[in-house]
Amino acid sequence: MKCIREYKTSSILSPLFVTGEVILECLIPFVITELGNAISAGVQLWGEGTSWNTLGIGQYALILVAMAIASLICGALAGAFCAHASSGFARNLRKDIYYKIQEFSFENIDKFSTPSLVTRMTTDVNNVQMSFMMIIRTAIRSPLMMVFSVVMAFVIGGNLAWIFLAVVPPLAAILFYIMWKTMPLFHRVFKKYDNLNESIQENVMGIRVVKSYVREEYEKQKFDRAATDVQIDFTKAERILAWNNPVMQFFFYGVLSTTLFLGSYLVFRTTGMTVWTISQLVVYGMQILMSLMMFSMIFAMVTMSIESARRICEVLKEEPTLQNPADPVYEVADGSVDFEGVSFKYAATAERNVLEKIDLHIRSGETIGIIGGTGSSKTSLVNLISRLYDVTEGEVKVGGKNVKEYDLEALRNQVAVVLQKNVLFSGSIKENLRWGDPNATDEELVEACKLAQADEFIRAFPDGYDTHIEQGGTNVSGGQKQRLCIARALLKKPKILILDDSTSAVDTHTDALIRKAFREYIPTTTKIIIAQRTSSVEDADRIVIMENGRIDAVGTHEELLDHNAIYTEVYRTQNKGGKAISSLAEMGDAEGGNENA
Questions:
Q1: Choosing a second label site near 234 at 20 to 30 A (CA), which of 138, 284, 356, 415?
Q2: Separation between Cα atoms, residue 588 and residue 508, nearest integer Å
Q3: What pTM did the predictor assign?
Q4: Phi, psi of 440 (to 5 degrees)
Q5: One domain for residues 221 and 360
Q6: Domain that residue 97 falls in
Q7: What is the full DSSP assignment across 98-131?
Q8: pLDDT tens digit string along 156-209?
């Protein structure tokens, strides 16, 4: 309801105009009855009085035309305000969900999953929008039409109108039963929607791998299974909801037949009941039953959207696990980093910690290399520095203060991270680089790109720095993408720079040039380099060896070669025949070969 905001006026005006439309539609049969009785009595075209009993046929006709036009205007305005309110409501709802997601920590996003969040912002919002539109128009019209029609039926038909009221209890009971049966199915089906979206997302994002391994048929089968699961539950729910129509039709024609039978009997008995009265009583009966029919449609839509609304509320009510402190610190003194007795796991229910008893002290301006096998929690360790996650035990300090004391934005502005999965956005190279600093000058862009060894290949493009980048950076190579991401991070002018295996797609020569530029031009910035290649970290001030979430050893390249078995084995494995491999890579790079080779 909070998402209605500036559309409250439209949301109120729509029911008001619907009320006017319903009142006029219920009065029209009454006027037609009076007109019919006047015709039967042989009243003149134009009467001389002002009461119903003294009006002429022409006056009745003018009143009917005026009421019909007024009803049309009310209906049109009700529809316009309804469309305006519902579309604006959906816009606000999507915006609120999106803004809420921006506040989420990685832990919150892990809880919902990306496909589920996409479904909630699209399918679920559409369902809620449709329900809202029906609630402020049809759901107002249906009960009002029923009430006014029943009242008018009693006015012109007397006790015969009880027929219409008699059908309401059994109909209500049937509708409630249908709702009770379908709600669990809709609850289940929307979870399967998430699985369907996940299947599509995986296929689209990994389309190159799918085609490389000729796994299109497998992906089709996986999607077909997910789509079939959705179909089965939706079919069950729709089969139950489909009973709405025949049940309504049964009661509709039953009431119509009963009204005509009893009405005809009363006319023949000359009890004061006229053919005109019976015909308009039938009209009121149709309006009552059509109202019930509309109510059943609303009921079906709302039944479906209740589960969507619940899923949306889960997102809106979710509190970010990372919050700013009451009195945050906005200045980061320097680039020093301290891990003191740090243990960490991604979920409170996890059986074991990802990181265990980490003690590490990094001086400001120091270059630290981190090496370890896959799954040794290297990335998990550096994620704690910018407080992407909170530690389970111990504390992480940046600039001598616990990261929990900092304003999140201030902390992350001083910690630049070039992630393992490099992401570029659709737009020009300049626009992508200015994610690091929106106010950066062209000269600063060029300087950062030179440090990242990206300036040369950018200038080789026909449009230079104005070259358009496709979504995800699909029109540049892996090495080019990595260097652009490094340049983007440098534009933040951070006190701490974290490179998470972000030079894996560049050749060793370019990697060495990047590290040399870092040493010479940003000596006061703390540099933490996660790498698989020992050559990427061998000139670091210290190298940290990670093993199963623990620090196995810390030392210089030479110290680790002499005393650490893990580092020695990695170094010897990578450098066996290394000179030949290195020269081939450099030759390929010089000839414009594939940088991903």
A1: 138
A2: 12
A3: 0.69
A4: -65, 140
A5: no
A6: 5-317
A7: HHHHHH--HHHHHHH-HHHHHHIIIIIHHHHHHH
A8: 767 777 877 787 788 778 877 877 787 778 777 777 777 777 778 777 777 878
